[in-house]
Amino acid sequence: MSIKVDHVSYTYMPGTPFEHQALYDVSFEIPDGDFVGIVGHTGSGKSTLVQIISGLIRGYEGHVYVNEIDFSDKKQDRRELRKQVGVVFQYPEYQLFEESVEKDIAYGPTKLGVDPKEVERRVKAAMDLVELDYDLFRDKSPFSLSGGQKRKVAIAGVLAMEPKILIMDEPIAGLDPMGRENFMQLARSLNECGITILMVSHNMDNLAEYTKHVLVMNDGRLFMQGTPEEIFSDYTRLREASLDLPEVAQFAQMLRSRGMDIPPHVIRYDQLKELLLQRFGGNAACCKM
What is the DSSP string of 60-114? Predict the structure, then answer.
């Protein structure tokens, strides 16, 4: 499902001493089935942007179209937007509240008036997507689970709404490296199932590895947009936005400074490893990373 942001601007608390313009004339399009990373320094406007797209903020200038429907139109039924767009906030496990995993995941579709049998089907499908065994976890209290399992339950609750678009605001914050990797693999599998994903994150390495396109926000403006290779190979412009390169791209840059011919598009571990193996063979110590 496609998204079009057309000349969107937004000001917090206009006409007061605390007035602050968070977005300035932002425009871009995201095609159906894309996986987009959104990066930017603190206060760059990225969270405000995704809250506007998800319908959590109103009163902005410009237009936001989801599947060609203009949800900036006050007459438009916003319940339809909530059916199409799911949102996963930072630390989603803190939003759990029901007495069992099944009830927590079922809460959203039940409130929408979905038939109980269909709710059960959705709960089972959502738990399968996040790799939680239905029979094993359905009756457990979500508060008895591990941190990673709680996050999976929270995400399953969003997936049970069967959104076509999934917006994630810093979803891997607080996870250890293995947890981050598992979550990103889950995000990729959801994207491969046809869900359009927008992910706000400070983790450049994960975005370089998993996303198809990247948007860079800077001081409320869309500063850069392109593929991960295009964005993360432009170190000069990233520094202008107070951002750094993924670790692999930093290592590749160090090798260039020492005279090695490393193409600028090398931003991921698999790309660098393949290049070094081609040049030095399987016995190269620098390839054993």
Answer: -EEEEEETTEETTSTTS-HHHHHHHEEEE-SSGGGG--SSSHHHHHHHHHHHTT-
Contact between 232 and 249 under an 8 Å Cβ cutoff? The reply is yes
DSSP reduced 3-state for 224: strand
d(CA 114, CA 123): 12
Give me the residues paired with residue 166 across strands.
Answer: 86, 197
Name the packing angle between helices 147-159 and 177-192 (round to 10°).
Answer: 20
Tell me if 289 sits within 8 A of 273, measured CB to CB. Answer: yes
Phi, psi of 280 (to 5 degrees): -115, -10
pLDDT digits (tens, 9 = 90+) for 122-172: 999 999 988 899 999 999 999 999 888 888 899 999 999 999 999 999 888
The length of the chain, given as a count of residues? 289
pLDDT 10s digits, 19-49: 999 999 999 999 999 999 999 999 999 999 9
Partner residues linked to 5 by β-bridges: 28, 64
